[in-house]
User: Fold this.
Amino acid sequence: MTSTPLNTLSVGTAGPRVAFLHGLFGQGRNWNQIAKAVAGSHGRDARCLLVDLPDHGRSPWSTDFSFDAYADAVATTLRSAAPGERWTVVGHSLGGKTAMVLALRRPELVERLAVVDIAPKSYGSLERFEGYIAEMQGLPLDAVTSRADAEARFEEPDPGVKAFLLQNLRREGHRWYWQANLELIAADAARGTGSRMAGWPAEVESLPPYGGPVLWIAGGDSRYVKREDGDHMRALFPRARLLTIKGAGHWVHTDAPEIVVGALRRLVATPA
Assistant:
């Protein structure tokens, strides 16, 4: 993993520092509308940084995956953006696990934490994403003539999921390519129950608990956070407070943006 800071997008001009970490196949800009709302109408309520995780968006690729390496890359990026300052870190799914590992390994950098629809545990495999990966690998990039052509060829029936995945498709001249490191993600998915992305790094279990305020957001219609996850979550993050949003799925911030914005604004105002 390179020590070069990750690609970022800034929103807001004053106030506390807030970093947003997206999920698998996402990009920092997926949080743009939420970040604008957290920053306020004049952009002075928070200074938000939307981060492209390694192997995603415009950030560098890696040759192997580990949560430690992802967390270290985010730490390098935050320190470069605001030397000596502390952050509220918001992470969804893959980004949520990265945010938790960052808080446990670098607590001096994280003032507050928001974990969105993920728990500190292994989910076994990337089975839910295997179909998406196969669809992306199956798109004949050499034959694609336009973005409309790519959309017509892409077989995903859910229009929201299709748009989310195809945001990773880029063109350079006449050449189309995947901006996400699809080869690395597919190799991790091929590990089955040994997937590192679906897993949880055992080494962080021996670290001291993170003592800052933690907002734990779960989608009421999602299966990623279960009641039995609470004890382990609070062992690692004693100040965790669970907010379950009814009617929201795994992409909670897309399904219930106003509730998420309100909760994040309250978190940012919470004394550390």
Remarks:
- The longest helix spans residues 67-81.
- The chain has a mean pLDDT of 96.
